[in-house]
Amino acid sequence: MKKYLGQIIFNLIVAISGVLLFSCTGILDSAFLSVLAIICIVAVMTWGNYYFIKAYDLGRKAFQKAYIIDEHTFESLNEPKDYIEVIKDLKDYPLCRQEASKILEQWELFQKKSVALDTISSSGGVYDLVNQDIQSVMINNMLLFIKRTAIIQSTSRNDEIGMHRNYLRMLTGRNEKILADYTNLLIEVSQMTDSERMNTEIKSLSLIIDSIREYKKEMESEDI
Question: Would 66 be classed as within a structural domain?
Fold first, then answer.
């Protein structure tokens, strides 16, 4: 009940306002004004309830301010879940909402692919190492995402904002490529027997390892 208290109060205020509008004015004397008033009240209630429902879906309180990145943000980044929580908060920030949603979807997709690889490869060996490397790449991309969003929050020039958003899209594009390589690896591994996986060179595995190396080189030279 407490979770929906704001929405309940909002609806009560609108309802009471509607009653007062009709009872304390001569609006009922005009059919046109009465219909117009009803339409306005319904529109306000619809918009308000949509706002509250959207806030609940995003896991935040109504009227909660957009998340602001500060030094405490980076001090709290210890585990993958810490990065995820910050990115979730950034979904409320209009200038990177789409990109934040995208990078969260990519992380969820990586988690699913990781489970699938563990299942079809009987886990262990080089597959675990590759999976850890991919996770490292994606977490580092989230860190770069958070850092660049901090810069966006400190600027007001539209041309700079556009440049920074392009960088965020580049990060999600980087994830997209490595996830596509991961998909190819899953397909190839799923088509091989246990003995073939032990004795056959897996082309997609070599490609994804090369991709990871390239990504690591890019990240080492990244200058944001």
Answer: no
The domain in which residue 16 lies consists of 2-57
173: number of CA atoms within 13 Å, CB side?
A: 6
Q: What whole-number distance in Å separates Cα of residue 101 and Cα of residue 98?
A: 5
Exposure on the CB side of residue 71, measured as CA atoms within 13 A: 0
Given this model, what pLDDT does residue 52 score? 66
Distances (CA, A) of 42 to 37, 45, 180: 9, 5, 47
What is the per-residue pLDDT for 169? Answer: 96
Same structural domain, 25 and 80: no
Q: Give the residue from 170, 180, 167, 110 showing the smallest Cα distance to 138.
A: 110
What's the pLDDT tens digit per position in 136-185? 999 999 999 999 999 998 876 777 888 999 999 999 999 999 999 999 88
Q: Which positions ≥6 away from 49 have C-beta within 8 Å?
A: 7, 10, 11
Residue 145 lies inside a defined structural domain of this protein: yes
Same domain, 103 and 191: yes
Dihedral angle computed from the Cα positions of residues 215, 190, 109 and 179, in that order, rounded to the nearest 10 degrees: 20
Host H or E run for residue 13: helix 5-23
Burial grade of 117 (CB within 10 A; 0-12, 13-18, 19 or more)? buried
| DSSP helix/strand/coil, 186 | helix
